[in-house]
Amino acid sequence: MARELEIVREVDLDAPPHDVWDAVTTATAAWFWPLAFEPRVGGAVTGGGTVLAWDPPHQVTGRHEGPDSWFNEVSETITPLDGDRSRLRWEHTGVLAEDAERQRESAEEHTDLYLHTLGEYLAHFRGRPVAYSSVDAPAVSNNPGALEWLLRRLGVSGLGVGDATVTTLVTRVERVEVDYARPNFVGLRTDHSLVRLFGRNAYGSPVGVSVHDFAEGADADATTSRWTEWLAAVYA
Protein backbone atom coordinates (compact mmCIF):
# COMPACT_ATOMS: atom_id res chain seq x y z
CA MET A 1 0.00 0.00 0.00
CA ALA A 2 1.29 3.46 -0.90
CA ARG A 3 2.32 5.70 1.99
CA GLU A 4 3.07 9.40 2.12
CA LEU A 5 6.59 10.72 2.53
CA GLU A 6 7.39 13.92 4.41
CA ILE A 7 10.92 15.06 5.18
CA VAL A 8 11.51 18.49 6.70
CA ARG A 9 14.98 19.84 7.44
CA GLU A 10 16.35 23.28 8.37
CA VAL A 11 20.03 24.10 7.92
CA ASP A 12 21.93 27.32 8.65
CA LEU A 13 24.39 28.25 5.93
CA ASP A 14 27.34 30.63 5.90
CA ALA A 15 26.20 32.42 2.76
CA PRO A 16 23.78 35.27 1.97
CA PRO A 17 20.34 34.44 0.55
CA HIS A 18 21.19 35.28 -3.08
CA ASP A 19 24.12 32.82 -3.02
CA VAL A 20 21.95 30.10 -1.51
CA TRP A 21 19.29 30.86 -4.13
CA ASP A 22 21.82 30.45 -6.91
CA ALA A 23 22.98 27.16 -5.41
CA VAL A 24 19.50 25.64 -5.21
CA THR A 25 18.29 26.87 -8.60
CA THR A 26 21.20 27.13 -11.04
CA ALA A 27 24.14 25.29 -9.40
CA THR A 28 22.45 22.11 -8.20
CA ALA A 29 25.14 19.96 -9.88
CA ALA A 30 27.59 21.37 -7.33
CA TRP A 31 25.96 19.59 -4.38
CA PHE A 32 22.91 17.58 -5.54
CA TRP A 33 22.52 16.56 -9.18
CA PRO A 34 21.90 18.67 -12.30
CA LEU A 35 18.46 20.30 -12.33
CA ALA A 36 17.17 23.10 -14.53
CA PHE A 37 14.23 25.32 -13.61
CA GLU A 38 12.33 27.46 -16.06
CA PRO A 39 12.22 30.64 -13.93
CA ARG A 40 8.49 31.16 -13.57
CA VAL A 41 5.49 29.56 -11.92
CA GLY A 42 4.25 26.88 -14.29
CA GLY A 43 7.68 26.51 -15.86
CA ALA A 44 9.42 23.22 -16.53
CA VAL A 45 11.77 21.32 -14.22
CA THR A 46 14.26 18.72 -15.44
CA GLY A 47 12.64 15.30 -15.64
CA GLY A 48 9.15 16.44 -16.56
CA GLY A 49 8.36 18.46 -13.45
CA THR A 50 6.63 21.79 -12.94
CA VAL A 51 7.61 24.91 -11.00
CA LEU A 52 4.94 25.58 -8.36
CA ALA A 53 6.69 28.50 -6.64
CA TRP A 54 9.33 30.91 -7.95
CA ASP A 55 10.09 33.82 -5.65
CA PRO A 56 13.77 34.81 -5.82
CA PRO A 57 15.65 34.69 -3.53
CA HIS A 58 13.11 33.30 -1.09
CA GLN A 59 11.33 30.18 -2.31
CA VAL A 60 11.37 27.64 -5.11
CA THR A 61 9.13 24.58 -5.35
CA GLY A 62 9.21 21.86 -7.98
CA ARG A 63 6.81 18.95 -8.39
CA HIS A 64 6.90 15.77 -10.46
CA GLU A 65 3.76 13.69 -10.96
CA GLY A 66 3.10 10.23 -12.34
CA PRO A 67 0.41 7.56 -12.61
CA ASP A 68 -1.64 6.23 -9.69
CA SER A 69 -1.47 9.52 -7.75
CA TRP A 70 2.33 9.33 -7.49
CA PHE A 71 4.13 12.63 -6.92
CA ASN A 72 7.42 13.99 -5.66
CA GLU A 73 7.64 17.61 -4.49
CA VAL A 74 10.48 19.62 -2.98
CA SER A 75 10.09 23.14 -1.61
CA GLU A 76 13.09 25.21 -0.52
CA THR A 77 12.58 28.37 1.50
CA ILE A 78 15.46 30.75 2.27
CA THR A 79 15.43 33.12 5.24
CA PRO A 80 18.16 35.72 5.86
CA LEU A 81 20.08 35.58 9.14
CA ASP A 82 22.54 38.02 10.68
CA GLY A 83 26.01 38.40 9.23
CA ASP A 84 25.39 37.33 5.63
CA ARG A 85 24.09 33.96 6.73
CA SER A 86 20.90 32.16 5.70
CA ARG A 87 18.55 29.44 6.84
CA LEU A 88 17.26 26.93 4.31
CA ARG A 89 14.07 25.05 5.02
CA TRP A 90 13.78 21.88 2.92
CA GLU A 91 10.35 20.25 2.63
CA HIS A 92 10.14 17.03 0.62
CA THR A 93 6.76 15.35 0.21
CA GLY A 94 5.70 12.46 -1.97
CA VAL A 95 4.37 8.94 -2.14
CA LEU A 96 6.21 5.75 -1.25
CA ALA A 97 5.12 2.49 -2.84
CA GLU A 98 6.72 -0.79 -1.83
CA ASP A 99 8.94 -1.26 1.24
CA ALA A 100 7.95 2.17 2.52
CA GLU A 101 9.98 2.21 5.73
CA ARG A 102 13.24 1.34 4.01
CA GLN A 103 12.53 3.92 1.30
CA ARG A 104 11.83 6.55 3.95
CA GLU A 105 15.05 5.84 5.84
CA SER A 106 17.04 5.94 2.61
CA ALA A 107 15.45 9.23 1.55
CA GLU A 108 16.18 10.81 4.92
CA GLU A 109 19.83 9.72 4.84
CA HIS A 110 20.27 10.97 1.29
CA THR A 111 18.69 14.32 2.24
CA ASP A 112 21.04 14.83 5.17
CA LEU A 113 24.08 14.17 2.98
CA TYR A 114 22.86 16.43 0.16
CA LEU A 115 22.20 19.34 2.52
CA HIS A 116 25.57 18.89 4.18
CA THR A 117 27.16 18.89 0.72
CA LEU A 118 25.36 22.16 -0.04
CA GLY A 119 27.08 23.69 2.98
CA GLU A 120 30.46 22.33 1.85
CA TYR A 121 29.98 23.77 -1.63
CA LEU A 122 29.07 27.21 -0.28
CA ALA A 123 31.98 27.18 2.16
CA HIS A 124 34.73 25.94 -0.16
CA PHE A 125 33.73 26.18 -3.84
CA ARG A 126 31.00 28.80 -4.07
CA GLY A 127 30.41 30.11 -7.58
CA ARG A 128 32.96 27.86 -9.28
CA PRO A 129 31.98 25.86 -12.39
CA VAL A 130 31.46 22.17 -11.69
CA ALA A 131 31.68 18.91 -13.60
CA TYR A 132 29.26 16.37 -12.10
CA SER A 133 29.63 12.61 -12.36
CA SER A 134 27.56 9.81 -10.86
CA VAL A 135 28.57 6.15 -10.98
CA ASP A 136 27.10 2.93 -9.59
CA ALA A 137 29.45 0.16 -8.56
CA PRO A 138 28.88 -3.34 -9.99
CA ALA A 139 25.84 -5.27 -8.79
CA VAL A 140 28.01 -7.40 -6.51
CA SER A 141 28.42 -4.32 -4.27
CA ASN A 142 24.85 -4.90 -3.10
CA ASN A 143 26.20 -6.94 -0.20
CA PRO A 144 27.03 -6.33 3.48
CA GLY A 145 30.44 -4.76 3.95
CA ALA A 146 30.62 -3.34 0.42
CA LEU A 147 30.96 0.29 1.52
CA GLU A 148 33.65 -0.55 4.08
CA TRP A 149 35.55 -2.42 1.38
CA LEU A 150 35.44 0.70 -0.79
CA LEU A 151 36.69 2.88 2.07
CA ARG A 152 39.63 0.55 2.63
CA ARG A 153 40.55 0.60 -1.04
CA LEU A 154 40.41 4.39 -1.03
CA GLY A 155 42.67 4.54 2.03
CA VAL A 156 40.15 6.36 4.26
CA SER A 157 38.76 3.51 6.37
CA GLY A 158 38.56 4.37 10.06
CA LEU A 159 38.84 8.13 9.54
CA GLY A 160 36.34 10.44 11.23
CA VAL A 161 35.03 13.87 10.32
CA GLY A 162 37.95 16.30 10.11
CA ASP A 163 40.54 13.59 9.65
CA ALA A 164 42.70 13.84 6.54
CA THR A 165 45.19 11.70 4.69
CA VAL A 166 47.17 11.67 1.47
CA THR A 167 45.97 8.82 -0.71
CA THR A 168 45.40 7.75 -4.29
CA LEU A 169 41.87 8.79 -5.17
CA VAL A 170 41.28 6.58 -8.22
CA THR A 171 44.05 7.96 -10.46
CA ARG A 172 45.45 10.94 -8.59
CA VAL A 173 47.42 11.23 -5.34
CA GLU A 174 45.95 14.02 -3.24
CA ARG A 175 45.03 15.20 0.23
CA VAL A 176 41.61 13.92 1.20
CA GLU A 177 39.61 15.11 4.21
CA VAL A 178 36.52 13.37 5.57
CA ASP A 179 33.78 16.00 5.86
CA TYR A 180 30.86 13.62 6.52
CA ALA A 181 30.70 10.19 8.11
CA ARG A 182 27.62 8.12 8.79
CA PRO A 183 27.32 4.32 8.77
CA ASN A 184 26.00 4.25 5.19
CA PHE A 185 27.20 7.56 3.73
CA VAL A 186 30.62 9.21 3.62
CA GLY A 187 31.75 12.56 2.21
CA LEU A 188 35.31 13.34 1.09
CA ARG A 189 36.71 16.76 0.21
CA THR A 190 39.88 17.48 -1.75
CA ASP A 191 41.37 20.78 -2.84
CA HIS A 192 39.21 20.72 -5.96
CA SER A 193 36.32 18.30 -5.45
CA LEU A 194 33.58 16.87 -3.28
CA VAL A 195 33.27 13.08 -3.50
CA ARG A 196 30.18 11.44 -2.01
CA LEU A 197 30.07 7.70 -1.23
CA PHE A 198 26.60 6.14 -0.97
CA GLY A 199 26.30 2.82 0.87
CA ARG A 200 23.07 1.98 -0.88
CA ASN A 201 23.80 -1.69 -0.31
CA ALA A 202 22.06 -1.07 3.03
CA TYR A 203 18.86 -0.48 1.04
CA GLY A 204 19.09 -3.23 -1.54
CA SER A 205 21.06 -1.40 -4.27
CA PRO A 206 24.69 -1.18 -5.40
CA VAL A 207 27.12 1.27 -3.82
CA GLY A 208 27.14 4.66 -5.57
CA VAL A 209 29.67 7.45 -6.00
CA SER A 210 29.12 11.05 -7.05
CA VAL A 211 31.91 13.49 -7.88
CA HIS A 212 31.49 17.26 -7.91
CA ASP A 213 34.72 18.37 -9.58
CA PHE A 214 35.58 22.09 -9.46
CA ALA A 215 39.05 21.81 -11.02
CA GLU A 216 39.75 23.95 -14.06
CA GLY A 217 39.11 21.90 -17.19
CA ALA A 218 37.36 19.10 -15.29
CA ASP A 219 35.82 16.54 -17.65
CA ALA A 220 32.70 14.79 -16.35
CA ASP A 221 32.80 12.04 -18.99
CA ALA A 222 36.43 11.25 -18.25
CA THR A 223 35.78 11.19 -14.51
CA THR A 224 32.81 8.87 -15.00
CA SER A 225 34.90 6.54 -17.12
CA ARG A 226 37.78 6.42 -14.63
CA TRP A 227 35.53 5.73 -11.65
CA THR A 228 33.52 3.10 -13.57
CA GLU A 229 36.68 1.20 -14.45
CA TRP A 230 38.15 1.55 -10.99
CA LEU A 231 34.98 0.40 -9.21
CA ALA A 232 34.76 -2.61 -11.54
CA ALA A 233 38.27 -3.59 -10.45
CA VAL A 234 37.53 -2.94 -6.74
CA TYR A 235 34.53 -5.27 -6.76
CA ALA A 236 35.86 -7.84 -9.23
Mind explaining what this structure looks like?
Strands 1-6-5-4-3-2 form a 6-stranded antiparallel β-sheet, with helices on one face. It has a 6-stranded antiparallel β-sheet with strand order 7-12-11-10-9-8, with helices on both faces. Strand 8 (164-169) and strand 9 (172-181) form a beta hairpin. The longest helix is centred in the middle third of the chain and has 25 residues, at 100-124. 25% of the residues lie in helices and 38% in strands. The chain has helices spanning 17-25, 100-124, 146-154, 220-234; strands spanning 3-13, 44-45, 49-55, 59-65, 71-81, 85-96, 131-136, 164-169, 172-181, 185-189, 193-198, 208-213. The chain has 4 helices and 12 strands; from the N terminus they run βαβββββαβαβββββα.
Strand order of the largest sheet: 1-6-5-4-3-2
What's the number of structural domains?
2
Strand content: 35-45%
Return the CATH topology of the largest domain.
Answer: Alpha-D-Glucose-1,6-Bisphosphate, Chain A, domain 4
CATH secondary-structure class of the largest domain? Alpha Beta
Q: How helical, in percent, are the residues?
A: 10-25%
Question: Major beta sheet, specifics?
Answer: 6 strands, antiparallel
- Any idea what the CATH superfamily of the largest domain is called? START domain
- Rg from C-alpha positions? 18 Å
Outline: globular
CATH architecture of the largest domain: 2-Layer Sandwich
Number of strands: 12
